[in-house]
Amino acid sequence: MRNSLKKTFIALQSSNYRRYFVANSISSLGTWMQRLGMSWLVYRLTDSAGWLGVITFFSWFSSFLLMPWAGAMLDSGPRRKILSASQMLGFAQAMFLAVMTQTGHITVNWILFLSMLLGFVNAFDMPGRHSFISDMIEDKKMLANAIALNSISFNLARLVGPALAGIVVANLGEAPCFLMNSLSFLPMAWVLFRMRLLSEGGDKGPAESFTTRIIEGFRYSAGHPVILPAFILISVMSLMGMSVQMVLMPIIADRHLGGDAATLGYLTSAMGLGAVVGALFLALRKNVEGIEKFPPAAFGFYGLLTVFLAYSRSLSVSLIICAFMGSCIVSGWAASNTLLQMSAEKRMLSRVMSIYMMCFSGMSPIGSLFMGWFSTYTSTSTAMVLGGISCSTAAVIYLLLRRRALLATQKLQN
C-alpha cells in the first residue's frame, strides 16, 4: 500500500515541485471561487445567457491574441521570472474586482474590462505553468506523474472551490470570492521568487525575432503526426464542449433544476469530484504507454454525457452525470497535456503549449459566444445536444487521422 502511494505521488520527491504543488493548489482554489462568483455576478446583473457568453468570449479571446507572443517569450527567456510577474498582475486584477464589487461600483462594462485584463495575464500564466513543470522535473516518468498530480490539485480545488463560493455568494455576496482569489496568488509568487533551478528554461540558441519563433512553432506543430491531430480534437472540444460548463451551467441550475447559486456550486463540485477520480486514475498508471488513446475516448464519452444532461430535470441525476463529465474532462485534458509534453522537443515546448492553450482559449470564447446566442434563440437543451454530438464526432476524426499517420509511418519504414 505504501509503495503504491509512493508511486502515485512520486513527483513530490522533488522539493521544488512539492512547494510548487502546494502553492498551485491554493491558487487553483482561488481561481475556481472567482469563476463561480464572476458567473453569478454577471447573471445577477443581466439575467442573460448572452451576456455570460460575451464576458467569457472577451476574457478568453484576449488570451488567444497574446499567446503566440507569450509562447515565444517563454521559450526565449526565464519562465520562472515571467510567471512571477504574472502572479502579481493576477493579484492586482482580482483585488480591484473585489473592491469594485464590494463598494457597489461594479458594472457589466467594468467586468468586461477586468475580464480582458485577466485574459492578458492568463496568456503568459497558463502556458507558462504547463511548460515550467519540465524545468523542475527532467525524468519523463516523473513528468507524467507531475501533470497528473497537477490535475488532481486543480480538480480538488474545482470540487471545494465552487461549493465554498456558492455558500459565500449566498451569504456574503461575490466580493469575498474575488478577495480570496487575489490573496491566493501570493504563495505562488513567493515560491517562484525563492525557487532555484539548475536550468532556468528558455532557448539559449541564436537570437531570433519573435515573428520567426512564432512561425517556427506553428510549422513544427502542423507537421507533427501526434501534435496536429491532438490540436484538432482539443479545438473542437473547446469550441463545442467546454462552453456547456462555462456558459450554460448557471442556466441549467436555474431553469432546468429550479436552483440558485448553491445549486450551481453543487453541479460544478460534482464535476470536480469526478475530475479528481479521473486524475487519480491517470496518476496510478505505472507507465504512459497507450496515453494517446485517452483523449478521444474521454472527449467522445463526454459528448454523449452532455446529451444526457440536456434532458435531465433531476438534481441527483444531473450530479451523477456531471461527475462522469468531470472525469472525462480531466482524463482527456491531462492525457493530452502529457502526450504533447512528451512529443514536443524541449526547445519548442512553450510554443507548443501556447498553441495548445490557444486551441482552448481561442475556441472556448467563440463557442461560448455561439452557445450563449444559440441557446437564447433555440433552447439550452438543443445547444447542449449540438455540442455533445460535435465532441463525439471529433473523437472519431482524431482516431482516423492517427490511423492514417501510423499507416504512413509503416510504409516509410518498409
How does this model look, in words?
Helix 9 runs parallel beside helix 13 and helix 9 (227-256) packs antiparallel against helix 14 (380-413). It is built from 14 helices and no strands. The mean pLDDT is 82. The protein has helices spanning 2-8, 15-46, 49-76, 79-102, 108-136, 140-172, 175-194, 210-222, 227-256, 261-284, 294-310, 315-343, 349-377, 380-413. With 414 residues, it is an all-alpha fold. It has one domain (14-413): MFS general substrate transporter like domains (Growth Hormone, Chain: A, Up-down Bundle). It is 84% helix and 0% strand. The chain starts with a helix and ends with a helix.
Number of strands: 0
Strand content: under 5%
Mean pLDDT over the residues = 82
CATH C-level class: Mainly Alpha
Helix content: over 70%
- The CATH superfamily label reads MFS general substrate transporter like domains
Q: Which residue ranges are poorly predicted, with pLDDT under 50 across at least 5 consecutive positions? A: none
- Give the domain tally: 1
- How many H/I helices? 14
Please give the largest β-sheet: none
Index terms:
414 residues; mainly alpha; Growth Hormone, Chain: A
